[in-house]
């Protein structure tokens, strides 16, 4: 079982572009080669997944699953129109451009480009950032369908249909780079180099003996922290912009693990998993995992008032919101 060490999480930096009235001037950005990473629209995904179906059969299949075929096609057309605008604008400005999807987003294509431009949403942006190894290669996100998502990591939505304006601001230095921190992970152990398995291919292969093994296992001594002979150390070839989640591949399983932070003594823990987030990810999944709803706060105040007999004033939304 691969061992994940929090102390091995280090930072890597890369840049994204911010444009707007408050953006400071930067030196003119003159990329010669641009790689455009595009998302699969839901319509493209369904066509790829059910390639054996005719269009009429696909309509019936989607309707049987409660999906609206016309809506899928409508948003697919919006996405492709804005994607073509990005590609055509880059080429019209003398920038050599390649258009790739997730399957062709390879190291060779990334190394070829001076800049990565994503057309999709935040998910496409996160994928683009995960495979860039250099801190000097910028990523610029274009939300290809602002009617469906905000795209917090992308340029403001009004640039989607006005990408020529955004590009001119970039080429003339009327923008500011935003630097973001990413996380990297090192796996240690005899299975560190095992091939990754897609979650939907994962099966229940082993008996549930991990809890007993973990309970009976003795804490390692400090000198045993390094990888024992024959055990490999593998720096994963991806970087995480939002967060790293460590847990069982099947969400119904409980995770049993030992945790050590910055060389502290190992502590045995049991939970549904462990999440380590970056600054960018602090307002995403991690925020929603840890947030306390107004209803919970109201209930806590009610319990305090009931148990102590103290009448807490303004136990309404004003007090809850100020917290």
TrEMBL record:
Keywords: Kinase, NAD, NADP, Transferase. GO terms for molecular function: NAD+ kinase activity. Pfam families: NAD_kinase. GO terms for biological process: NAD+ metabolic process; NADP+ biosynthetic process. Its EC number is 2.7.1.23. It is an enzyme of class 2 (transferase). One of its GO terms (cellular component) is mitochondrion. It comes from the Eukaryota. The keyword S-adenosyl-L-methionine does not apply. Belongs to the NAD kinase family. This is NAD(+) kinase.
């Amino acid at each position: 079982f691969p061992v994940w060490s929090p102390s091995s999480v280090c930072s890597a930096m890369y840049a994204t572009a911010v444009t707007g009235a408050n953006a400071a001037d930067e030196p003119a950005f003159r990329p010669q080669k641009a790689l455009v990473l595009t998302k699969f629209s839901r319509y493209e995904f369904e066509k790829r997944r059910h390639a054996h179906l005719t269009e009429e059969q696909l309509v019936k299949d989607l309707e049987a699953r409660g999906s609206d075929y016309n809506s899928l096609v409508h948003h697919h057309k919006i996405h492709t129109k804005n994607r073509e605008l990005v590609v055509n604008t880059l080429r019209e400005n003398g920038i050599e451009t390649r258009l790739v999807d997730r399957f062709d987003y390879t190291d060779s294509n990334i190394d070829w480009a001076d800049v990565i431009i994503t057309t999709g949403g935040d998910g496409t942006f996160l994928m683009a950032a995960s495979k860039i190894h250099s801190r000097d290669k910028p990523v610029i996100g274009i939300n290809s369908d602002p009617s469906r998502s905000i795209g917090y990591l992308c340029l403001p939505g009004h640039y989607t249909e006005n990408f020529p304006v955004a590009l001119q601001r970039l080429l003339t230095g009327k923008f500011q780079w935003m630097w973001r921190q990413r996380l990297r992970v090192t796996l240690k152990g005899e299975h560190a180099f095992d091939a990754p398995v897609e979650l939907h291919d994962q099966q229940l292969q082993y008996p549930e003996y991990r809890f007993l093994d973990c309970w009976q296992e003795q804490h390692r001594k400090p000198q045993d922290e390094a990888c024992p002979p024959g055990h490999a150390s593998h720096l994963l070839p991806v970087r995480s912009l939002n967060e790293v989640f460590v847990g069982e591949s099947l969400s119904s399983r409980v995770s049993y693990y030992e945790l050590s932070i910055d060389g502290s003594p190992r502590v045995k823990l049991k939970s549904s998993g462990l999440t380590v987030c970056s600054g960018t990810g602090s307002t995403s999944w991690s925020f929603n995992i840890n947030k306390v709803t107004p209803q919970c706060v109201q209930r806590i105040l009610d319990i305090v008032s009931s148990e102590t007999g103290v009448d807490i004033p303004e136990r309404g939304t004003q007090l809850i919101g100020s917290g």
